[in-house]
Design a protein that fits this description.
The protein is α/β, with parallel strands linked by helices and 315 residues long. It has 11 helices and 10 strands.
């Protein structure tokens, strides 16, 4: 194995400055070791973060329109971007500005004109700290038994995707999954084998997800949940059927099941375009009701429906 195979993935840096010469200087400094993206205004920077999350942002403090303080403030108020380290790059040596910058969430200040070794060292330090933080956060969001996301990660993801769907008027689908007759499986084969079954089902559900933002999590006990951003009912139903068939095709023997001779799942699927006056918990409740319908109507099936919304009051 060569040394490059062991090298960490190149970090993504976003350089934000309204002056092309300053962007070019930072690009030349980091282009050989990192992926460098550029934005020339505060709004461009926010839009770039929505499209592809950078690992670190080098942000000019004084820009026309939206200044660096406001950009940083908005980044820190968005759960998707709150953990991205922001380093202010400024020609001004103003302690008051530095205090404000740290208060709005910046991790460091770099002065212009740039000192190349100092800039590299500070970026390297903050990238290392971010990697360590990412590892710790990921461990806090992993279910210890199945190795997939846990309930805490699901709650955070649902909140973020709900806000995104409401802002962009995109549908959000939620799939709630329950292993059929799992208590009987544990009683018949023991809890150790039951744990093996949970791991296998969790792994195959995760493998069915086709997009980076799709999330599979353990909801609790023998229940799993999938969050599908910007996915309509037909697309989510197709995926839910794919998951149901994939679990059945694992062919995990279940002699105690009255539904089939192998482990199967029941699935409730709800979809809605998030809107004001509606909480994301309502989507979970709707999927739970549909899951109950799937179990009551024979199990090993998908019951899917658009979430019913209360009619708006006439004005």
């Amino acid at each position: 194995m060569n040394a490059s195979a062991l090298a960490p993935e190149a970090a993504k840096l976003l350089v934000v400055d309204d002056q092309a010469i300053n962007i070019q200087a930072l690009y030349e400094l980091f282009k050989d070791d990192h992926e460098v993206f550029m934005a020339t205004s505060g709004q461009q920077a926010l839009d770039a973060c929505e499209e592809a999350l950078p690992d670190l942002i080098l942000l000019d403090l004084m820009m026309p329109g939206m200044d660096g303080f406001e950009v940083c403030r908005q980044l820190k108020h968005n759960p998707r971007t709150a953990d991205i380290p922001v380093i202010f790059v400024t020609a001004q040596n103003n302690p008051e500005h530095e205090t404000i910058g740290l208060d709005v969430g910046a991790v460091d200040f770099i002065s212009k004109p740039l000192n190349a070794p100092v800039v590299r060292a500070r970026v390297r330090t903050h990238l290392a700290l971010k990697r360590q933080g990412d590892i710790l956060r990921s461990l806090a969001f992993i279910d210890g038994l199945t190795g997939i996301a846990n309930r805490r990660r699901f709650d955070e993801c649902l909140d973020v995707e709900w806000r995104d769907g409401k802002r962009n008027v995109h549908p959000l689908a939620l799939i709630l999954i329950d292993i059929d007759h799992f208590k009987s499986y544990n009683d018949l084969y023991g809890h150790l084998q039951g744990d093996t079954c949970l791991r296998a089902v969790g792994a195959v559900i995760s493998a069915c997800m086709g997009r980076a933002r799709d999330l599979t999590a353990r909801f609790g006990g023998e229940e799993f949940v999938c969050v599908l951003p910007n996915c309509d009912l037909d697309g989510a139903r197709h995926l839910a059927e794919k998951v149901r068939m994939a679990v059945q095709e694992l062919a995990i023997v279940h002699a105690g099941s009255s539904t089939a001779a192998v482990v199967t799942i029941s699935v409730g699927l709800s979809c809605v375009v998030p809107q004001d006056g509606l909480a994301c918990d309502a989507l979970v409740d709707a999927a739970d009701q549909l899951l109950y319908s799937a179990k009551q109507s024979g199990r090993n099936r998908v019951v899917a429906r658009m979430m019913e919304l209360a009619p708006r009051a006439a004005r």
